Amino acid sequence: MSDDGLSANRPARASRAYVTLVTNPDYALGAKALMRSVALTGTSADLVVLHTGGVSEADLEPLAALGVRLVACDLLPTSDAFNARHARKALHGAAPFTKGEKPSFHTPLDNFAKLRLWQLTDYSDVVFLDADTLMLANCDALFDYPEFCAAPNVYESLADFHRMNSGVFTAKPSRATFDAMLAALDLPDVFWRRTDQTFLEHFFPDWHGLPVTYNMLQYVWFNMPDLWRWSSVKILHYQYEKPWQDPHPKAAALRPLIDLWRAYAGDGPVPALADLPDP
Ligand code: UDP
Ligand code: MN
Predict the structure, then answer these.
(1) Residues with CB under 5 A from ligand 2 (ion)
(2) Residues 6+ apart with CB under 8 A from 123
(3) Phi–psi pair at 203, nearest 5 degrees
(4) Residue 3 — very low, low, confident or very high, per pLDDT cuts 50/70/90?
(5) Distance CA 209, CA 223 (A)
(6) Cβ count within 10 A of residue 202
(7) 0.70 exceeded by the pTM?
């Protein structure tokens, strides 16, 4: 480990990077499909997976085979009290999820490790992507966007436009920003009810809004079908239940989206967007 606590399997190959986070084998499955989808867009940006010790060599191997840069890290050095408040049971009790179900392999505390991307100062520009997303069209234009851009958390109603979703965002790595974040994160009694998402909304109160097409949430498929147009979806985000959970409560309603994810997760051809069914 270097003194920033990160350790990479190879040097950076570009000044821009798409970055995701993986802390367990389930999200490694997601990251493999995601990174394959990003590679298929023909980007020249680096592909990076931040991973903790919760992921084995064998789980990382498919990512290495795609040429992804693997950067080992620890969870953030947050206090025991902070960790207890954001433990899965405590968080689900204090701020229940009523719209969908989080899989059993989702550990809320792990989300905060996303902030480590600000330590990736080899890169001038980063786009962070949750491991449960797929890139369906080239998004390199986002590297020219300022920090901090994210799409609204739209999956049910117009009121959702007031909130941000932290599954896709633009960032400029900086040691100073990372240190400022750590100083603002773990304050006495603070509770970030939706973890990194609530924190980032607080840290960047003037976040710039991306179009929802950069972070199309899967529930839009059945809640707001008028908003769905395959030709404009750039990033698809499987929020709540994951497409590799078999089965899950919404699987029947999301079948075409799950089939699409499976095509990317495999090694065969992926369908053209023009051939996908409308909601
Ligand atoms: N994550 C992880 N391990 C966890 C929880 C989260 O690696 O136990 C990472 C992963 O990249 C994941 C992201 O943090 O995509 C956010 O979690 P998730 O996508 O499950 O949340 P949702 O989009 O459903 O709110
Ligand atoms: Mn997600």
Answers:
(1) 130, 132, 167
(2) 12, 14, 15, 16, 17, 46, 173
(3) -75, -30
(4) low
(5) 21
(6) 12
(7) yes
pLDDT score at 37: 98
Query: Separation of 73 CA from ligand 1 center, angstroms?
Result: 16
Asked if residue 211 lies in contact with residue 154, where contact means CB atoms within 8 angstroms, the answer is no
Q: Which of 132, 156, 196 to mutate to test the pocket of ligand 1 (most atoms within 8 A of CB)?
A: 132
Q: Structurally, what CATH architecture does the domain formed by 6-275 represent?
A: Alpha-Beta Complex (3.90)
**3-class secondary structure, 91:** helix
- Domain residue limits, the chain: 6-275
Residues 114-150: pLDDT tens digits? 999 999 999 999 999 999 999 999 999 999 999 999 9
Q: Give the DSSP H/E element, type plus range, for residue 206.
A: none
Angle between helices 255-265 and 25-40 (to 10 degrees): 80
What the block records as the tokens of 185 is 């994160």
pLDDT tens column, 154-180: 999 999 999 999 999 999 999 999 999
The pairing of beta strand 235-237 with beta strand 133-135: antiparallel
Tokens of 158: 């117009």
The answer, yes or no, to whether any atom of ligand 1 lies below 6 A from the CB of 240, is: yes
Q: Which amino acid is at 101?
A: E
From 46, 47, 48, 51, select the one nearest 22 (Cα to Cα): 51
C-alpha–C-alpha distance, residues 243 and 66, integer Å: 21
Q: Is 60 exceeded by the pLDDT of residue 1?
A: no
Q: Which residue is associated with the tokens 């750590």?
A: 182
Measured distance CA(190)–CA(53) in Å, rounded: 27
